[in-house]
Amino acid sequence: xxxxxxxxxxxxxxxxxxxxxxxxxxxxxxTVYSMGDSSKNVPxxxxxYCNHCKQYSLWYDKKMIIPSSGNAPLPNNDLSEDIxxxxxxxxxxxxxxxxGAVALLRLCIQKLCKDLGEEGVNINEDISNMVKKGLPIKxxxxxxxxxxxxxxxxxxxxxxxxxxxETANKLFHLINLIVDVMIPQPKEIDxxxxxxxxxxxxxxxxxxxx
Length: 210
Ligand SMILES: [Zn+2]
Hints:
Elements: E1 13-15, E2 22-34, E3 37-50, E4 56-60, E5 63-66, H1 81-93, H2 98-115, H3 123-132, H4 137-154, H5 165-182, H6 184-194, H7 198-208
Helix pairs in contact: 1-2, 2-4, 2-5, 3-4, 4-5
Zinc ion (ZN) is lined by residues 16, 18-19, 21, 23, 50, 52-53, 55.
């Protein structure tokens, strides 16, 4: 998993919301002329300039308002194009509607379960099936977090995430983590394992079938 440093007000370096690179940011005050006194400049916010992609994010009241994706990370490259679209849509609304974003992220894991070989109809059952097949516990928990919070976003529940960008942002990271563990990592391990000497692999099979 690539380390990710969340953008934060006045932080000098973080992962850029446009290019995702960990880069140095230069902060500049944004001012407007005062009404009635054009000699006076009134500060209204800040811009943070990314040294890598040369784009500006706009901050108001210590919060990033442009781009609207705010602190939500970019989708993991190993996600399917279809899920990436939902993920991006969730990013585009997370600042104005964390609840809507979380509902879309729930849809992302529903589709992801299908990509992982399950039916993709009932997430609860899909997770249960994957647990039986040896799903790592941290992945089961991550899937359940997105499922439960997503359910609470669309049905009347005990969790109120109407204005909770922070929780919504965490779910984006969890999805990226799930994908990382479930898609590229097993492939990489299989590739290395396949290259072990035949004799050793036979001995391992024998041991495992004891
Ligand atoms: Zn950038």
